[in-house]
Inverse folding.
């Protein structure tokens, strides 16, 4: 009789697999002769020179493994680490923090490799064959608007200097509609130009390099997250470097999702992938879902308040600079 499919049982089996640490291959009991130094030994590696016991003749598989190792993808299971980042990200990080380092790809090396792949995908190596964030249209539009503004200024008979120094003011009262030109403050225009220019550059940078953007974001919020997760059930004595390494792995997880979405030109889903970062935080800490979400939201809120304070200070600083230095 065919066994009935039990969804609850399958979910429990999947969770048990997630929490199970990565297993190491058992020690070989056969005697080997090292092909490199001709030493006789038992085990998986030669104790004299370190060469693996399963060294075979060159084949397509061996050539592919050598090619992967040349780019740092074969040393510590790059693709196995990516799979674990998708299916069990928090438990992978816990394994790494508890000493299972050789089983997984190094976090920073993995980050830079994934960032390079993400850069290729966003610049044309995707299903559309075109760059996903092309600024040429924006530049063309800006040039067109600038030319149109100059043309309008010339035909109206007013000089460019007078046009920028005045602005139209419209008032409505019982007698009708009245319009007049008021002097526009040059320092205010200068401050707005500097601030909007900086914000535009930051926005374009975040759109072009989402993986770098998420890493910078995690670096900014790492201090706040450390305050709320340093005494979690799974790691009661969490250290700040351990949290930062965890955030780098989380950034790698986000980059993997962004590469997949960008490759299929689903760039809108890349922003929603940020919400998936709550999964590894929950698995690492051992808190409940609601408590993990609450702590994360509070940490982000503190970061947002500090960011607003920084913006206000930046505006004041730019204003003082323009006032005294032009």
């Amino acid at each position: 009789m065919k066994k009935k499919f039990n969804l609850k049982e399958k979910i429990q089996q999947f969770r048990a697999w997630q929490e199970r640490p990565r297993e190491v291959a058992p020690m070989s009991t056969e005697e080997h002769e090292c092909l490199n130094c001709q030493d006789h030994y038992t085990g998986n590696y030669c104790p004299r020179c370190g060469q693996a016991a399963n060294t075979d003749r060159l084949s397509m598989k061996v050539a592919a493994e050598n090619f992967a190792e040349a780019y740092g993808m074969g040393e510590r299971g790059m693709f196995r680490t990516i799979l674990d980042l998708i299916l069990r990200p928090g438990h992978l990080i816990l394994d790494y923090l508890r000493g299972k380092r050789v089983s997984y790809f190094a976090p920073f090396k993995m980050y830079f490799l994934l960032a390079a792949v993400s850069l290729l995908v966003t610049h044309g190596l995707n299903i559309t064959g075109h760059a996903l964030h092309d600024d040429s249209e924006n530049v063309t539009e800006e040039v067109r608007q600038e030319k149109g503004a100059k043309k309008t200024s010339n035909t109206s008979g007013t000089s460019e200097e007078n046009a920028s120094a005045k602005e139209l003011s419209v008032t409505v009262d019982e007698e009708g509609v009245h319009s007049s030109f008021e002097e526009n403050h040059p320092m205010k225009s200068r401050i707005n130009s500097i601030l909007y220019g900086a914000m535009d550059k930051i926005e374009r940078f975040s759109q072009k390099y989402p993986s770098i953007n998420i890493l910078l974001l995690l670096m900014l919020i790492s201090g706040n997250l450390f305050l709320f997760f340093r005494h979690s059930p799974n790691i009661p004595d969490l250290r700040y470097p351990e949290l930062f390494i965890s955030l780098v792995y989380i950034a790698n997880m986000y980059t993997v999702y962004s590469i997949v979405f960008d490759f299929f030109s689903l760039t809108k889903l890349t922003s929603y992938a940020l919400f998936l970062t709550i999964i590894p935080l929950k698995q690492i800490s051992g808190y409940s879902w609601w408590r993990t979400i609450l702590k994360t939201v509070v940490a982000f809120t503190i970061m947002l308040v500090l960011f607003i304070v920084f913006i206000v200070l930046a505006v004041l600083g730019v204003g003082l600079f323009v006032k005294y230095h032009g």
In short: The longest helix spans residues 289-325. Confidence is low (pLDDT under 50) at residues 135-141, 157-170, 179-183.
